Amino acid sequence: MRNFILVGLLAAVSFSASAQNPASPIGKWKTLDDKTGKAMTITEVYEAKNGTLAAKITENLGLPATCGECSGQYKGKPFVGIVTLSNLKANKDGSWSGSGYKPSDDRKFNAKSVKLVDGGNKLEVKGCVAFICKTATWVRVH
Question: pTM above 0.85?
């Protein structure tokens, strides 16, 4: 009986530690193509060493093997490992803002608003270049 209780307690602790916090964007997200809605990558949002949030591609689902369109440090490199969001800091409205990079277009952008929607199951990433803004929706991977 004692072992049964111990196993149950350990299972509960392990489940709660691995559960996603729906109020935090930290975790894995499926990114979708703007035009087709097809899954492109799995991108992980994580806490960076400087205390801000960042995101990098961890799985390639629908892109070429390497980034031929990229310039600079990512030119000709695999998509996996490319940092797509950086220096995200919390805003008073519950969103985050910082810098972004869209490797498929080789474009840097201002990540004006990164916010959770749909009970934490989706992440809206609003990126702006000058005064032109677009919003992409990422879907949480459970």
Answer: no
